[in-house]
Amino acid sequence: MKTKFDVLIVGAGIAGLSQAIALAEKDSTLSIGVVTKSQLKETNTRLAQGGIAAVISTQNDSYLAHIEDTINASQNQADRNVVSFVVENAHQGIHQLENWGVRFDKVHNDYHLGLEGGHSHARILHVKDQTGAAVHDELINQIKKHHSIAVLEFSEVIELLMNKDCEVGGALIYDHKKNSTIYIYSKMVVLATGGIGQLFQYTTNSTIATGDGIALAHAIGAKINNLQSIQFHPTAFRAQGKSKLFLISEAVRGAGAHIINKVGERFLFAYDERGELATRDVISSAIYQEMKTSREEEVYLDCRHISKEVLKREFPYILDHCLKGGFDLTQEVVPIIPAAHYSCGGIQVNLQGESDVSNLYAIGECANTGLHGNNRLASNSLLEAIVFTENVANSILNNLKSIDFKPLFPNKSLHHFIGNDKKLFTKEENHLKVLLTSYFITKNEGDKENLLNAINQYKIQQEKVPLMELSVIHFKRRLTLIELILEKINMEFPQEKLNSRTHIF
Asked: How many CB atoms sit inside 10 A of residue 443's CB?
């Protein structure tokens, strides 16, 4: 395994791979490493169904409309300058993806634009109902064309390494297949590790979405912001006994699907006049309120009134998955519940993707750019990753000119790391998932006390086990991330305000 890279990118979704490709295209002499802790195709990007929001033509849409939709969805907490930057450069990001081989759906040579909740216009470019997978496949094809990019699969960053000048200078990597560790030197590190959905009881996220990048950055002093703003997707297919749930795209509601309760009522209009086209936070909150009132464990997505031809043409993947799960979308209602879907906050960065730690960048879901505020607008996530790619690449290339490899100072407590993953804390992790989900939804003081008691108990328990075990490191990160979420919740919503607010999504 190579031990020195000009740029080390941690994560292999749209954010990580786009960054690697952009850098390689701009300077073929760069040595670029991409680290992913599973196989290359295990990423949240591949789970994105709906598409990418972009104003391609201003005849029937406008930048201002997309900007206002984004800010309204964010509960007016998004940074307008960042929103304007992303929206106004969206078409360039789309064309970049097309240059890399992505073919968005078209009708008579015009883009087939979908409508999703929170959008005032149809502006969602897509590839059927598997946009993320289509994009990711083309990015993988592009990666293979660049000999300057080395992909390290089944490899995990244990810690980011600092040099004597308090700059990031590399990482300690654990190779899962070889059960060995190696020190990687790097002039720059880019974190593109995705979200934190696996902290919760129910999530649409990949099994590797455990917040590693955020925890790694926090450990070396990087500023973490807005971590309390976790978006729940309202229409996750409820499968008995499963915690990782299949997402039924926003675009299905855009095509006319209804959300109903057990007695067949479209109850969303009691909460918002937009009904099924309200934003995700509003719909998720309404569903939880409805389940609480009715004492039911699910509500239902109703597509029976949509023509079979439309469902088969536009949502073949969703239709097939539901059929395999025992439900025919064309003939029966499907059980759904909200599930943790997207982290709107993370590592604080500027428009160049720079954190407040020298030589450390972050891009994609693990970063807090200011685009999403408290709630992300549908189909703005893949958009954010591809639009920021250009700025981050230019900043890295400019800064690399003055950087050399320097001696590193690893954490002495990890010198004897052996990496055996004995899964020592599986029961405790599952318990924390239930407690965090409960408190996150209810903001009840009793739930908070239960969660804090468990954290304190598990901290004591964890400290008795040597840090050399991989599962101990994972569990310690989980505790850290939960404490960060609680800290941010308490900062934004002091207790006197929490009493009158039931949900945050």
From this structure: 20
How far from 372 is each of 309, 342, 383, CA to CA, in Å? 35, 10, 12
How far apart, in whole angstroms, are the C-alpha atoms of residue 389 and residue 260?
40
32-35/180-191 β-pairing: unpaired
Mean pLDDT, to the nearest integer, of 19-42? 95
- Return the closest-CA partner of residue 502 out of 456, 413, 451, 439: 439
Selection from 97, 188, 86, 94 nearest residue 135 by Cα: 97
> Which of 7-11, 163-167, 235-239, 463-467 has the weakest average pLDDT?
463-467
Residues 6+ apart with CB under 8 A from 437: 200, 201, 202, 340
The average pLDDT across 80-107 equals: 97
Q: Cα separation of 385 and 15, whole Å? A: 5
Please tell me the distance from the alpha carbon of residue 151 to that of residue 130, in angstroms, as a whole number.
24
Give the Å distances, CA to CA, from 111 to 90, 98, 103, 133: 15, 12, 10, 19
DSSP-derived secondary structure for 373-435: TTSPPTT-HHHHHHHHHHHHHHHHHHHHTT-----EE--GGGTT-------TTHHHHHHHHHH
Give me the active site residues, please. Answer: 280
Tokens of 467: 């840090």
Q: How far apart are CA 255 and CA 499, in angstroms?
A: 37
**Distance between CA 432 and CA 444 in Å, rounded?**
16
CB 252 within 8 A of CB 270: no
Q: Which is nearest to 248 in space by CA: 237, 261, 232? A: 237
Query: Which residue, among 132, 64, 70, has the nearest Cα to 372 in the 3D structure?
Result: 70
Predicted confidence at residue 494, as pLDDT, reads: 52
Q: What is the pLDDT of residue 409?
A: 81
Give CA torsion, residues 237, 241, 242, 245, to 10 deg. 10
Cβ neighbors of 396 (< 8 A, separation 6 or more) are 7, 23, 188, 190, 361
User: Is the Cα dihedral 205, 216, 82, 498 positive or negative?
Assistant: positive
Using the predicted structure, report yes or no on whether residue 314 has a pLDDT greater than 80: yes
Q: Which neighbouring-strand residues pair with 117?
A: none
More confidently predicted of 49 and 381: 381
